[in-house]
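Final report, Chapter 2: Outcomes

The project's central promise was a pipeline that accepts a single protein chain and returns its three-dimensional structure in a standardized token representation, suitable for archiving and comparison. That pipeline is now operational. To close this chapter, we reproduce one record exactly as it appears in the project archive, with the input sequence first and the structure output second.
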Amino acid sequence: MKPRNVAQSEQHKLRLQAHHERFTGSTARLFTTFFSDEGLTSYATLVATVDAATAKCVLDIGCGDGTLLAELARRTPAMHLYGLDASSAELELARKRVPGASFVQADCTDRLPYPDESFDAVLSHLVMMLVGDIEATISEIHRVTRPGGTVSFLYDDLPSDPNGIYVDLMRYGVQAALQKAAPEEFREASDHRLYDHATLQALCARYGLAISEHRHFTVSRELTEIDAWPMMATSYPLSGLDEDARGRAREAIARRFRERFDERVVASLPLQFVKAHRL
């Protein structure tokens, strides 16, 4: 996918804001039920990258309802925590969940509302594949990170698993909702540069971030037919549809689950994890 133009980016931002106003906290509710082979949620995977001995100020970009910052607060109460998100509804939950943190409403593709070299660590959970301009975001992350500080982010790797359970159920749900064949790229396509290591490494290096780790991993959980719709209902492709369309999607997803699986199946979501240091 080519980077979005200005009009596309603004439309994309509005869709994301509408989604999070309607389904506030849905990302955390879903991803706190999936675990890696090491028994960690994707949030805990990011928290583990923060060195409590050296990181005194930490920023979570796209903090949502504050789940990641809450984990950091429990682990290191003395740490100064900051969260940024475009959704006022998500931030309302975050402020209640982590009352000691500082939150601001802003879009991560705009200039971040922090001075240069403010943070020892910057984290981002399932945001990079949604931003309209990853170059602007990476540039701003570099600006607000202190020299030698760490930057860690993870994002979905669904393009690597086109026939996986999640994508398969989504394809059938979207097709039923739209009452026509699902488009080849029925989900919000991510910037392709995120999915090529050499390209992403060069892009980060251009903005002063040296990638030290880039790996694929999966998080999994047991899934039943009853669980399938709650997992899919708050996905971006289905969240903006009217109730009739969502009803058709729900029926199609249940039908596809019965066709393809027994009563229970292990569902895995592929992710990519990146850790870099600020030069």
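Archive annotation: The first strand starts at residue 57 and ends at 61.
This record, like all others produced under the grant, will remain available to the consortium after the project formally closes.
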